[in-house]
Amino acid sequence: MSVIQETEEAPATAGTTRARVEELAALRAAVVAGPGEKATLAQRAKGKLTVRERLDILFDEGSFVEIEGLRRHRATGFGLEDRRPHTDGVVTGWGTVDGRPVFAYAHDFRIFGGALGEAHAQKIHKLMDLAESAGAPVVGLCDGAGARIQEGVTALAGYGGIFRRNVRNSGVIPQISVIMGPCAGGAAYSPALTDFVFMVRGTSQMFITGPDVVQAVTGEQITHDELGGADVHAERSGVAGFVYDNEECCLKDVRHLLSFLPSNNREMPPGAPTCDPSDRRVEALVDLVPADPNQAYDMAKVIEEIADHGEVFEVHERWAPNVICALIRMGGEVVGVVANQPQRMAGVLDIEASEKAARFVQMCDAFNIPLVTLVDVPGFLPGVDQEHGGVIRHGAKLLYAYCNATVPRVQLILRKAYGGAYIVMDSRSIGTDVSLAWPINEIAVMGAEGAAGVVFRKRIAQADDPEAMRARLVKEYKEELMHPYYAAERGLVDDVIDPADTRSVLIRTLAVLRSKHAALPSRKHGNQPQ
Predict the structure, then answer these.
(1) Dihedral of CA 242/248/47/156: which sign?
(2) Boundary residue ending a domain (258, 275, 303)
(3) Domain residue limits at 434
(4) Which of 390, 420, 431, 453 is catalytic?
(5) 497 occurs within a structural domain
(6) How do residues 46-94 score in pLDDT, each as one tens digit?
(7) 48 and 196, same domain (yes or no)
(8) Catalytic residue among 121, 421, 444, 451
(9) For this structure, is 95 an active site residue?
């Protein structure tokens, strides 16, 4: 071909390319717009945002990059061959949150009700594999009606691939599930395998079998919200760690949570500059915690006092409230806090509190977040229901989590620490790096009243004045075995500190432990209590 011919034909080729580019732009616009105004209005009528609006809130402005937006299913039968919308009901891609890379998949309820089919599942599989390779968190925005019935077993196999990746990435990259609509049947297992679950009140539900099935099998009549709504999972089942009144607040707190987490298990949590002095004395603590071990107070206020600027991000706030699990910053560094809450059930440990704290300790250990344990515990909750419900194995979960943790660990005994609960709350004997106590601490097998009743039962019964004898022996027991320096004298507490110095001592202690390296025995994995 001559140079003249080449030049003359070039405009025609360029024109074709421009037309193709315009065609692509129109196609992308149609994909972003979604299935139509009617479906969008139906979504809004339920009080829900569209999938693109959700992603806009989650990610930094203009940072989201979609992959497989033009994907369509290949299934046939039941009219599926005539309905092949782009995206196949799930939007996948990555973007940044506060400048850090994050991967996300988001169901589009307007397409097939967000139901999962083969192509839909493969998009999520690819997204999760990319996140694993890149070492970045995965956020799933769940709003789907479960498996796509028309595709049969291939849809179920798609869920299996998601579950397998959830487990493979567990403790490797942060995984967050945000329930923004229905999440039923097999779909509910994936959020249960992730690190954190967010729900929106009034619009999100999770259950394995819906109300119709429950009624058919058991005869019970129950609504979707009563069976698996946000409040149910926040207060009773413990499935949801966070609940919100609207999607905007929910997604903003997902961003906030990500600011505490490293991108993967090979990195440290991101630090943040702070103008809150590390050596700030906290005089309020002296009066905040009463010396009387039977008087209640709010442990949440103690945590606020020691945290940078009083900012506390609590996990599972409404489930098992007798123990607090929270992420805070101290001296700009992320810290996980586990604390008994004397304001609820006197701060005892029970089945749910043990499970809640164990899960939190494991998460912190997986993602290199140091642990501070604030102890004010009268023991484990006694009772037939607790024993028959398996308090032994559930308490053992917390014990296992602490013993297995290799991150820096600091225990602080504020007031009482009795019996097996003292041991379980990261005591020196199970491996905490540093144990501290306030001068009002009482560490013992049990409270003085109960101990005196057991040890001196005969002397009290034989005394002329049993009550006077009991009071004298209780006093003797306290002076002998429960004075605040008893454990320190035996090396089970490293130091007794002024409560006002709590923040500065903890920050200095965690700073020196930051380079801690703990070697574990070679093993495939442990067999933790179930």
Answers:
(1) negative
(2) 258
(3) 284-447+482-513
(4) 420
(5) yes
(6) 999 999 999 999 999 999 999 998 888 777 677 676 677 888 889 999 9
(7) yes
(8) 421
(9) no
